[in-house]
Design goal:
Number of strands: 8
Number of helices: 1
Strand content: 25-35%
Mean pLDDT: 72
């Protein structure tokens, strides 16, 4: 039995050394991770910071849907003003009943025609202020007019300074304009599908 005991004790020493090395390795890993964390915390001042959250400048309600069912027929819709650019004359916006309209029974119609290549009739929602917008509209164009177009104006500062996304049925395209001092500049054009 004596020969067995020294080998057993020497095996115990090996286990103790392995346990001791494993403990030292854990301490070393823990110390290294603390150093890495300390280095990253000290380095974080040079890293870019998250941008502040945007301030949404909106006038309640945040989401707005307009229909014209409560507006009087043949009048300007409630809560809207109109503006014109060009020589087509002011006016032309009115509420009309149309059973085929997607938002039946009422819709808003623009009847004036432009006498020149560039003119526009704006129907402006009163009190609508927003920095970030997601706009949509359903348009029914009167294709009997040679220059018939329709779209959305946004970023309106006044009747001579705004952006517009316009559908041109004659060319089957959507065109985006910026209008400054009443003069349009095309920003982009894309074919409709």
């Amino acid at each position: 039995m004596k020969p067995f005991l020294p080998s057993l004790l020497s095996g115990q020493r090996v286990v103790d050394r392995q346990t001791s090395l494993a403990g030292r390795a854990r301490v070393l890993v823990l110390a290294m991770s603390c150093l890495v964390m300390a280095a990253s915390v000290g380095y974080s001042e040079e890293q870019p910071h998250e941008l502040p959250k945007p301030f949404h400048k909106t006038t309640p309600p945040l989401f707005q849907e307009w229909n014209f069912d409560q507006s009087a027929l043949r009048d300007l819709p409630n809560g809207f003003t109109q503006a014109v650019g060009g020589s087509s004359g002011k006016g032309g916006w009115s509420v009309k009943e149309d059973p085929s309209a997607p938002s039946r029974p009422h819709l808003v119609e623009q009847r004036l025609q432009c006498a020149e290549d560039w003119c526009y009739q704006l129907l402006i929602a009163e009190g609508a202020v927003a920095e970030y917008v997601d706009l949509s509209v359903q348009i029914k164009l009167n294709l009997g007019t040679p220059t018939g177009k329709g779209g959305l104006a946004y970023g309106i500062q006044d009747d001579k300074n705004f952006y517009a996304a316009v559908v041109e049925p004659r060319t089957n395209e959507v065109v985006v304009y910026v209008v400054k001092n009443g003069e349009p500049t095309e920003l982009g054009r894309e074919s409709l599908i």
